[in-house]
Amino acid sequence: MLRTVLCVIFLLRALPASANESRGHISVVLLGATGDLAKKYLWQGLFQLYRDEVSNGHSFTFHGAALTAPEPGQKMMFEVLKNLACPPDEHPTRCAVLKDQFLKLSQYYQLRTAENYTVLNREIEKLLEQEELEEAGRIFYFSVPPFAYAEIAGHVNSSCRPRPGAWLRVVLEKPFGHDLESAQQLAAELRNFFKEEEMYRVDHYLGKQAVAHILPFRDQNRQFLDPIWNRHHVERVEIVLKETVDAKGRASFYEQYGVIRDVLQNHLTEVMMYLAMELPANISSTEDVLQHKLQTFKSLQGLEKTSAVIGQYQAYTSQVQEELQKAQNYFSMTPTFAGVLIHMDSLRWEGVPFILTSGKALDERVGYIRVLFKNRAYCTQSEALRDAERSQCKAKQIIFYIGHGELNSPAVLVSRNLFRPVMPEGSWREVTDRPQLHLFGQPLSDYYVYSPVKERDAYAMLISSIYHARKDFFITTENLLASWEFWTPLLDSISHQAPRLYPGGRENQHLLDFEMLGQELSFTLAEPAEFLHTSKQTPDDYQTIQTKFRNSSLVSAWPEELVSQLASDLEAVAARAVARSGKFHLAVSGGSSPVVLFQRLAKHHYGFPWKRTHLWLVDERCVPLTDPESNFCSLHDHLLKHVRVPYFNLHPMPVRLNRRLCVEEDQGPELYAEEIAALVTNASFDLVLLGVGADGHTASLFPRSSSGLGGDQAVVLTESPIKPHQRMSLSLPFINKARQVFILILGRGKHEIITLLSRVGNEPKKWPISGVRPSSGQLVWYMDYEALLG
Ligand SMILES: *[C@@H]1O[C@H](CO)[C@@H](O)[C@H](O)[C@H]1NC(C)=O
Ligand SMILES: *[C@@H]1O[C@H](CO)[C@@H](O)[C@H](O)[C@H]1NC(C)=O
Ligand SMILES: *[C@@H]1O[C@H](CO)[C@@H](O)[C@H](O)[C@H]1NC(C)=O
Ligand SMILES: *[C@@H]1O[C@H](CO)[C@@H](O)[C@H](O)[C@H]1NC(C)=O
Ligand SMILES: *[C@@H]1O[C@H](CO)[C@@H](O)[C@H](O)[C@H]1NC(C)=O
Ligand SMILES: *[C@@H]1O[C@H](CO)[C@@H](O)[C@H](O)[C@H]1NC(C)=O
């Protein structure tokens, strides 16, 4: 075998095309040489690499490897190689010659044991010596399951590294972990053996022509896109990969991953990054592209359970039962369909929904990215005139069509009423056939449509990039971990959520349609079964009870109704305060209970006088305001981010002064008291909102506290039994000066203290909450049934 290879290399070097100085030898080792991916794409991609590069001075050998013994392995591999073909534009004679050469340069290796790797290395060395070839580098393509990575990586590192001065490129195929932790672990293992620049993690979607053209398109059309590629102009972005096939035959893989890990976490997320990232000045700079991508990952808002809808085709569970030999009562929760709504915290994209959708057993096979622009034109013409080609009344969109579907080829479409795009001449051409075909609500004649001159397989493109050491289209470790960090919380939160079942194919009808409401997604149609259970509880259960608790008003209800009542009462107090004095001074405490109230206010109370509202803190933990433990930080995340309170109406407690936290000499409490005195009439807040701890504490006033329970200090430093220990708090006498005090108490965990409080008098040393008795104001207790009744 070796001898044939030598002859061919000798022969090739004698050919006129490579008669000039050799640029060195490249050995390509394909691990998993007889697997599906290799059969379908990789050998074809390597053959294309050979055809493209053979005359550029490098010599090549191709080493197919697998666990199979040499003879049968060799046979299987040559069965695959036999079928290699050239594209139609290649001259048949040249194709035949090149294919013959390629076959002679390819041979099979069994790679199972450490010794087998040593032998491979020795053979490569021998070839280099005998032929007096410089070594340029080695490519190891891991087309094997990830559990085999570490072992192979160890062998490659210890016995197959190239000679000094030559490069090593290791190509890895997904999955790269199934959550953040496993991805970190795999990354750490690989880092033992390879340097970051040696690793090429493939996301083959990035090699698709329409996807690979997103950045160049944005770059070449900057003059048109700069003014409109932002939240003021973009209505929404859809990134879609629909499949008609199901997971039959792949259930053992699919059951562990599901559609989000299989498609959204990698392919669709990477595409989203290309669309959303700030465009580097030089898009050829791999490093700049990566940095801008990572920046965009940081701007993604965290996903909640309600950010996704998930489904599963009906036959899936029985396929899993059969292929994984599960019992008949086994039900899979793995989603085979998902729609996810993503928002970004960036000035460019704030408020613009990015919708990622993928699924199996759907009605069509298609992949596309659609950027839909807002239509601001108000059209006064008649319908007939509106139809003019460039009418501003028509939809405006840019579509990167990845493939399949009605067009059945990659394409870039730009609405004619936007602009005529700049496209690279030679590689993309304008197409005007099938003008009547409708896509995304418009005939093709409404768009400028461009297709690649030459369709090229994604793997061929990626293999060429590996050869040229262009890392733009590969996923670095940092990039990979950023993506898992983003997706893992959602995956965890839906892992026990039952997906909606769908029949598959056209029968799905509208079952998987979904809609956006603020930050949430939900299926448009209620599930048939849901109709049956709408009246679970009698209406009486929902009525709020009003009576007395500790001689003050008590409002009690189920939590949702209670919070809604509290929010309405709060708005009423705010409106009265504004009518009376033009301002509303509200002091809120920390903890978890107010969070639901904040969310309620942000989502339902659009008439709230936020512009006139001053926000004060009842208490604060001695941590920086940016710390997640900080009450102000929580107020910011759950309320301030969503409403418009003027900056100068915000009054966080000064826990950090002179670059230290809550030090007495810095006089933080005195400063806060002065600020209140300066702005709040009679230092009497319009409303103070409190909670209660299971130990009877309120604000940051704990049982047996040495300060704040009496005396004339308005603001005090206190100690909490729970970390962080140091706190700042309004004092009890000061709270009691308020015009109104609302106390919100939720959950069964509070039942014991509530029972106790119903019996005791005024004993603030034991239970600070019992000392809350506004001197001339009003006190109202808001308790849910669980807190009140246990
Ligand atoms: C080697 O020959 C090829 C084909 O003739 C040519 O394109 C290439 O530039 C040459 N390389 C050098 C280093 O001369
Ligand atoms: C691979 O290694 C094993 C054990 O070291 C050996 O039995 C086998 O013959 C080797 N295969 C080849 C093709 O050298
Ligand atoms: C990688 O290979 C080098 C050189 O062969 C060796 O020194 C090193 O220990 C290997 N790394 C690991 C983690 O085995
Ligand atoms: C852009 O980056 C590439 C790759 O780093 C570099 O070769 C090229 O010179 C850069 N172009 C400009 C205009 O800076
Ligand atoms: C409620 O009022 C009664 C009668 O005025 C009084 O005895 C009792 O101490 C009051 N309870 C509280 C908690 O203030
Ligand atoms: C402020 O306090 C004084 C003295 O207690 C009182 O006369 C006055 O009415 C108060 N002002 C307001 C606006 O409540």
From TrEMBL:
InterPro entries listed in its UniProt record: 6-phosphogluconolactonase_DevB, G6P_DH, G6P_DH_AS, G6P_DH_C, G6P_DH_NAD-bd, Glc/Gal-6P_isomerase, NAD(P)-bd_dom_sf, NagB/RpiA_transferase-like
Signal peptide start-end: 1-19
Gene3D superfamilies: 3.40.50.1360, Dihydrodipicolinate Reductase, domain 2 (3.30.360.10), NAD(P)-binding Rossmann-like Domain (3.40.50.720)
Coiled coil: none
UniProt domain Glucosamine/galactosamine-6-phosphate isomerase: residue ranges: 559-781
Catalytic activity field: D-glucose + NADP(+) = D-glucono-1,5-lactone + NADPH + H(+); 6-phospho-D-glucono-1,5-lactone + H2O = 6-phospho-D-gluconate + H(+); 2-deoxy-D-glucose 6-phosphate + NAD(+) = 2-deoxy-6-phospho-D-glucono-1,5-lactone + NADH + H(+); D-galactose 6-phosphate + NADP(+) = 6-phospho-D-galactono-1,5-lactone + NADPH + H(+)
Homology family: In the N-terminal section; belongs to the glucose-6-phosphate dehydrogenase family. In the C-terminal section; belongs to the glucosamine/galactosamine-6-phosphate isomerase family. 6-phosphogluconolactonase subfamily.
Protein name: GDH/6PGL endoplasmic bifunctional protein
Organism listed in the record: Crocodylus porosus
Taxonomy of the source species: Eukaryota, Metazoa, Chordata, Craniata, Vertebrata
